[in-house]
Amino acid sequence: MRQAIGAIILAAAGPWAGAAAACPDWRLAEDAVTHSSDALWTPQTYALTAGGDHNLRDCDQPGAGYVVAAPDLRLRFTDNAAQRDLFIRVEGDCDTVLLVNDPATQWHFNDDFDGLDPAIALPRAAEGSYDIWVGTFGRDLCAARLVLETFGPGQAPGPGGGFGDPGGGVAGSGTGFVVNREGWALTNAHVVAGCTTLEVAGTTVTRVIEDDGADLAAILLDPAPGAAPLPLRSTLARLAEPVHAIGYPLADILTPSVRATSGSVNALSGFDGGESLIQISAPVQPGNSGGPVIDAGGAVIGVLSATLSEDVFRGAQNVNFAVPTAEAIRFLSANAISHTLVPTKGTTAPAAPLAAWEVVEAAAAATILIRCLD
């Protein structure tokens, strides 16, 4: 998100309540590792392969992504009289997700805690068995490192590298933007994945449509926001053209205010030469996911989706990706969601060019903060 803040928690009715066939099952755990609270004061790392054949969306467990049925690791956590926080994180070579079943049989899920890497903080962790799955948001497998460590009570890292218990039932946050007067807003699929409730200030989310393959989602808001909807540009982005990225980064750490950054289009393709993403240099942070990337005239040319973390590729800086509007237009049209198209930069040809702040201010009014509640 996409930023996902904290962890999604779903209480099971029993040790394996509602588990569907070929879904994550803690009973399939084989080998276990045992660490005391003191031992994990020094982080312990395990190399593994992330991903699997089972789609979490087809299972009763929370979240989205692909995992194997048996846990990738079972941790027997002991001797926590000091009531330290247990911090479980993943360093992946692709977009990874993290699923944990704790000693009380509660499920915890996280995606994109730090860039594309997930993490789960368990305050004052109970002693007992933690079954851990490391999955992938897409279908492809990749190498990953699972890191286990402890922190003092209430001191486990928060989203974006900060510290403290996220609390408040917020499992994640992201950005969206209004596309029509009926109340439809566009965002990323990973922003809304696994959410029990979606919260947008001043309105209620009444419907969600997702396309995992394109990483796009539409949410219907009632009442509809009063801001003018953002138009989508029907022509392709151009190399080196200036853009602005708008969103709500790190909303639970910084003041939850809309923020804008500027840059340019760096490439018209993403990974492996694919055209499902465009690359931009405007700086983004966790929480920007789903926000609009606009051109100099205020028309949307992309939907912010991902950033290449320096943890994944050493030296990576401002390597950020957006879903191009061609994909967004296809998604909206396929779901009969009305939207406005403009053929070239901007919405109209004003008598005098608008200043950058005027363009950004107009787009920011149609940009919304989306909170995922557990």
TrEMBL record:
The keyword Signal applies. InterPro entries: Peptidase_S1_PA (IPR009003), Peptidase_S1_PA_chymotrypsin (IPR043504), Peptidase_S1C (IPR001940). The keyword Iron does not apply. Residues 1-22 form the signal peptide. This is Trypsin-like peptidase domain-containing protein. It holds the Pfam family Trypsin_2. It comes from the Bacteria.
